[in-house]
Amino acid sequence: MENDIFKALADPSRRTLLDLLHASNGRTLNDLCAPLDMSRFGVMKHLNILEEAGLITTRKAGREKLHYLNAVPIRQIYERWVSKYAEPWVIGLTSLQNELERETNMDNKPRNVNRIAIKAKPEQVWQALTDPAKTSKFWFNCAIRSTWEIESPFELWDGEEKKAEGIILDIDPPSKLVMSWRFISFPGTESDTPSRITWEIGSHAELHGVTLVTVVHDEYEQSARTAKILENGLPIVLSGMKTLLETGEMLAGD
């Protein structure tokens, strides 16, 4: 998989496409064609390579196909090849920022999408997500506690104080979990309204024993600071979940 990522990044046109999504996420093919001096087919070919490498994800919004930068593989490359040689503060340089204030005429458009493939069954992923003993091993030493029923509350707890809270909006084990999200103890989030996180879990269509986990964070127009924290944090959470389920170990530094 790393070879696919490095090959995808080797082409300057594909790097340009990633830069365009970095500047303004969730764009259509037409949006991405405009700045590039190539045919529509050429852009589609490059986007397909990026998607196969996991560097972008796509979602339907009505008749449109929207393209999103996927920070998780880049985060994993950082952990594998960069972090061992760098000071901890360098982590901030690898954060991929969304354009939070960009106007759009598409209703209910997801804004931040991350995806990862994990060598585990969907049931194992679901247990890792909902079992406090497991969650605490990859969610910044915090456990998510809930009765896991629709409209039941949950909290993100570090053993001393509550870090976040919300409501279970929809639940379909082991395939889907939708939760509202509000930070409690992070500076700058006091006036943020609850946003929404959706977990989509399903078996890979082609790889036996592999589960695709997609996390969508949206409805955060009035929660800019929350969006910033989750944009930086969710790729680390997903990488930690993958490491735990595939090796039984925690990410270095957790």
Q: What structural keywords apply?
A:
254 residues; globular; Arc Repressor Mutant, subunit A; seven-stranded antiparallel β-sheet; Alpha-D-Glucose-1,6-Bisphosphate, Chain A, domain 4; two-stranded antiparallel ribbon; single chain; 8 helices; alpha+beta
- Topology as H/E string? HHHHEEHEHHEEEEEEH
Distance between the termini: 24 Å
Secondary-structure content class: alpha+beta
Shape: globular
Remind me, CATH topology of the largest domain?
A: Alpha-D-Glucose-1,6-Bisphosphate, Chain A, domain 4
Number of domains: 2
Mean pLDDT over the full residue set: 85
Radius of gyration: 18 Å
CATH architecture of the largest domain: 2-Layer Sandwich
The helix tally amounts to 8
What is the CATH C-level name of the largest domain? Alpha Beta
For CATH, the homologous superfamily of the largest domain is named as START domain
Residues in helix, %: 25-40%
- Tell me about the largest β-sheet: 7 strands, antiparallel
Report the portion of residues in β strands. 25-35%
Strand order of the largest sheet: 3-9-8-7-6-5-4
Instruction: List low-confidence stretches.
Output: 85-108
Using DSSP, what is the number of strands? 9
